[in-house]
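Bit of a strange request maybe. I'm writing a small parser for structure token strings and I need a real example to test against, not something I typed by hand. Could someone generate the tokens for this chain?
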Amino acid sequence: MVMQSDIPVKEIMTREVCTVDKNATLLEASKRMMEFGVGSVVVIEDGRPIGIVTEKDILYKVVSKNKLPSKVKIGEIMSKPLITIKPTTSLREATDIMRKMKIRRLPVVDDNGNLVGIVTDNDILSVAMDLGEFAELLKNEYYESEEMGGKCERCGRIADILYDVDGLKVCEDCYEVLR
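Reply from user aminoacidic:
Good idea to test on real output. This should exercise your parser:
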């Protein structure tokens, strides 16, 4: 099975994006990133996205130079120009852009330039996993893997080795029956 690369990013994008005004301090932006539980913040000016600040930017442009986060304006350290995509951009195209540009996040803007979401490499990876690419690599009628010992989830017997059969950890006897 091949990843459904024709799916538009609007199907998987995060709609609630962590944003901050370009005049905010890095301290303020960092607090927003923590609230959202994300590693980047999209920088806004007059309601429009103009740049992005990532954990890498913070490390390279602030921490390594021993700057004080409360004194650094986010607009001074943002990466720009901001590379964006449309909601109708395919997953394959978004992935290609990320790979070529060596970036991990793509803000999504509508035809008017308004921020409507963001797509990350993790979003794309999650979809790829959901669509069965990983399972396809391990293709078998049953995914067989030996696990450390424990209690069989079918018969309750304690075994030195458990096998994974359709998500159940089973002993060798149950494995033979289910196989």
